[in-house]
Design brief:
With 752 residues, the protein is mainly α. The protein has 6 domains: 13-186, 5 helical Cullin repeat like, CATH 1.20.1310; 191-300, Cullin Repeats (5 helical Cullin repeat like, Up-down Bundle); 305-333 and 345-492, 5 helical Cullin repeat like; 493-566, Ring Box Chain A, domain 5; 569-669, 2-Layer Sandwich (Ribosomal Protein S5, domain 2), CATH 3.30.230.130; 672-750, Winged helix-like DNA-binding domain superfamily/Winged helix DNA-binding domain (Arc Repressor Mutant, subunit A, Orthogonal Bundle), CATH 1.10.10.10. It is 65% helix and 5% strand. It is built from 30 helices and 9 strands. The strands form 3 sheets. A 3-stranded mixed sheet has the order 1-2-6. It has a 3-stranded antiparallel sheet with strand order 3-5-4. The protein has a 3-stranded antiparallel sheet with strand order 7-9-8. Helix 9 (223-243) packs across helix 13 (286-296), helix 20 runs parallel beside helix 22 and helix 21 (462-476) packs antiparallel against helix 22 (478-507). The relative contact order is 0.03. Mean pLDDT is 88; it is low at 1-6 and 338-344. This is Cullin family profile domain-containing protein.
Length: 752
């Protein structure tokens, strides 16, 4: 072969590959840790790189790039067949895994070094021909010749180690992690090898393992003990993922554990005798309940059975309170001959307080044990709605709650609470009201009791009154509290009116000053409960008071008309006895009767009615309070606790009392029936209005849909009965607001 000066000598394939073969053998010796194997010197590295470079850059036909690319792969194949596979095939289990990890690490080193020697191929030849890189070729050789050969035994050995660890044995976690890394790396950038060759079997083995454990534990352990073990298993599996498994496996692995330990045995666990969910609630095992919630919150639909048991448990405890209150009321009736209203005086206190305690307890469970979950909040709500709408001793819970609130807010009430505790209790009262369907009934009872507190100046605090009204407005809406707020406002305006009246009197005291001191409270008709208006024949002193105030008010408010509610009036009268004078606080009716004795020596029910124009019932009540109550201001003949038409009453001029000032109460009136009837009337009007609103908008509507829409509009105030809605629809048809469709009788049309 002729060479010109300056030309590079052509290197034959055999010559070049011979030097490369020597380099490969040296690299193998280094990897196999043979004696006297020394690392490459810089000169050796450069010579090998240069040899490859020269053989790849020679002009054709001496460009050996393709031949070198093929021999690069052949070198790996030869090394694997001669050195790697024989050492792996002869080992089993953990020893095989250790050898495999070592061989894979060596293989990667070999790929890295040879890729450097053959770097020129990667940079040009591989790029131009769009063929696998040298690294991919090297890894591909290992995958094809080693991994595909040993992966069944490799997988089995790893799964065996994991099962040993699950059974409590110590294993080489670093080894498992390195083997897992091989599964991942064999995917050549994807997770396919890991998922197909290892993860799939790992998940099935996990399911089988925990299926066996669950069968054993469910037979041996209590529910709390089982859940502790289940939680420990989940924690262990999470740690296993963090330590040596791939992160992608976490959700799949935990799902298998939860399915086999929890989901498949949930019913058996929750219903375990003496240790299931109901037993944990009875025994207040909050820690165990919290664990139960944590574990089953990850199980699809796992919380609903627990929430159902929670709801049923609260319903039982709530109904026990109702039954206990009914029994207590029955016992009180047997022991004391009193009216139902008076016998329930302490019933509503104990029942409502017990209900608040029950709410505090299980609302605390929802917050602390059940993560404030919407499912458990709903279960709590439905449970309280269930028993709070049952009623106690013939009384609606709405009435009991109103009575409880009245005692809470009244001066000298049985509940002695700090400001903070009072606010908390008011919050609870309003919360319980949210569970009661008869909110309108509560509103009417509460309004009547509020009126008494305001008019008798018996509220413990105006701040408390405003506070509960604010809470009620938030819970039930502005319309619910508008009249109550108007009542409070009336009292504030009344003080201003009284001040103005006194100033007006002082302007001309000779003609305007009354014989007795007068204080008038103006009530707006629409805000206050409906009171019976009686044209009482007042004594002269009181007539003068009425006329003077009427003159003042007519000048001030000419467009308004005053109606006097004498039954709400209060009088402070000083009665002079021989022994001493006593101030008596009484109602206007009582005062009018006593003043009759200035001219009369004795009276009867009939004479009182005739002279004062007073209804017989009111006369009897007033006479009863003066003769049969604590203070015997009048003497009744014959004696007795009831008032008869023929009874005669005389003034008791020998009456005395240790106190200088006494209050003579009127017998209480049972307003329950009248209040309920008033609410029923309001409900009929509300249903009528709702029907008209719906039909005005829809024009034509089927009966079933009309029922749904009417209930939807009214359910915040009360739950209307279907029977009542049907009656009101028929009434609306009779009044020609609605008509039936001629073709379909179950469809109604609005008559414009």
């Amino acid at each position: 072969m002729m060479m010109h000066a300056g030309e590079r000598r052509v290197m034959s394939l055999d010559e070049g590959w011979g030097s490369m073969q020597n380099g490969i053998m040296k690299l193998r010796a280094i990897l196999d840790k043979e004696e006297n194997a020394e690392p490459f010197t810089s000169e050796e590295y450069m010579n090998l790189y240069t040899a490859i470079y020269n053989m790849c850059t020679q002009k054709p036909p001496y460009d050996y790039s393709q031949e070198l690319y093929d021999r690069y792969e052949a070198a790996f194949n030869q090394y694997i067949h001669s050195k790697v596979l024989p050492t792996l095939v002869e080992k089993k289990g953990e020893y095989m895994l250790k050898s495999l990890v070592t061989r894979w690490e060596n293989h990667k080193i070999m790929v890295r070094w040879l890729s450097r020697f053959f770097n020129y191929l990667d940079r040009y030849f591989v790029q131009r021909h769009h063929i696998p890189t040298l690294k991919d070729v090297g890894v591909g050789c290992f995958r094809r010749l080693v991994y595909d050969e040993v992966k069944p035994s490799m997988r089995a050995a790893v799964l065996e180690l994991i099962e040993k660890e699950r059974d409590g044995e110590k294993v080489d976690r670093a080894l498992i992690k390195n083997v897992i890394a091989i599964f991942v790396e064999m995917g050549l950038g994807t997770m396919s090898a890991y998922e197909t060759d290892f993860e799939k079997d790992l998940l099935s083995h996990t399911a089988a393992f925990y299926g066996r454990k669950a069968t054993q534990w469910i037979a041996e352990d209590s529910c709390p003990a089982y859940l502790i073990k289940a939680e420990e298993c989940i924690v262990s599996e999470l740690e296993r993922v963090q330590t040596y498994l791939h992160q992608n496996t976490e959700s799949k692995l935990i799902s298998q554990v939860e399915t086999n330990l929890l989901a498949q045995f949930e019913t058996e666990l929750l219903e375990k005798e003496n240790s299931g969910c109901a037993a944990l609630l009875i025994d207040d095992k909050t820690e165990d309940l919290s664990r139960m919630f944590r574990l089953f919150s990850s199980v699809p639909k796992g919380l609903q059975p627990i929430a159902d048991i929670f709801k049923e448990h609260i319903q039982k405890e709530g109904m026990a309170l109702v039954t206990s209150a009914d029994q207590a009321a029955a016992t009180m009736k047997e022991k004391r001959e009193e009216k139902p209203t008076s016998s329930s005086t302490s019933i509503e206190q104990s029942f409502t307080r017990s209900t608040i305690e029950l709410y505090d307890k299980y609302n605390g469970y929802v917050k602390t044990c059940f993560g404030d979950s919407s499912q458990f909040n709903r279960a709590l709500k439905e449970a309280f709605e269930f028993f709070l709408n049952k009623g106690v001793d013939g009384n609606s819970t709405a009435q009991l709650l109103a009575d409880f609130s009245d005692k809470l807010l009244r001066k000298g009430g049985s509940e002695k609470l700090s400001d903070e505790k009072m606010e908390e209790t008011l919050d609870k009262v309003v919360k319980l009201l949210g569970y009661i369907s008869d909110k309108d009934l509560f509103g009417e009872f509460y309004r009547k009791k509020l009126s008494r507190r305001l008019l008798q100046d018996s509220s413990a605090s105006q701040d408390y009154e405003r506070s509960i009204l604010s809470k009620l407005k938030t819970q039930c809406g502005t319309q619910f509290t508008s009249r109550m707020e108007g009542m409070v406002t009336d009292l504030q305006l009344a003080r201003e009116t009284q001040d103005a009246f006194e100033r007006w009197v002082d302007e001309e005291p000779e003609t305007r000053k009354t014989a007795i001191e007068l204080n008038v409270t103006i009530l707006t008709h629409g805000f206050w409960p409906q009171y019976k208006l009686i044209e009482l024949a007042l004594p002269e002193e009181l007539i003068q008071c009425v006329e003077v105030f009427k003159e003042f008010y007519d000048k001030r408010m000419s467009q308004r008309k005053l109606s006097w509610v004498y039954s709400l009036g209060q009088v402070v009268m000083t009665v002079k006895y021989n022994s001493k004078s006593i101030e008596m606080v009484m109602q206007t009716f009582q005062c009018a009767i006593l003043l009759l004795f200035r001219t009369e020596t004795e009276v009867t029910v009939a004479s009182v009615c005739e002279k004062l124009k007073m209804p017989a019932e009111d006369a009897k009540r007033a006479l009863h309070s003066l003769s049969c109550g604590k203070y015997k201001i009048l003497i009744k003949s014959p004696e007795g606790k009831t008032i008869a038409p023929e009874d005669v009453f005389t003034f008791n001029d020998k009456f005395t009392d240790r106190s200088r000032r006494i209050k003579i109460p009127m017998p209480p009136v049972d307003e329950k029936k009248a209040t309920v009837e008033h609410v029923e009337t309001d409900r009929r009007h509300a249903i009528d209005a709702a029907i008209v609103r719906v039909m005005k908008t829809r024009k034509s509507l089927a009966y079933s849909q009309l029922l749904i829409e009417v209930v939807s509009q009214l359910q915040q105030k009360f739950s209307p009965e279907m029977k009542m809605i049907k009656q009101r629809i028929e009434e609306m048809i009779n009044r020609e607001y609605l008509e039936r469709d001629r073709e379909n009788q179950s469809v109604f049309k609005y008559v414009a």
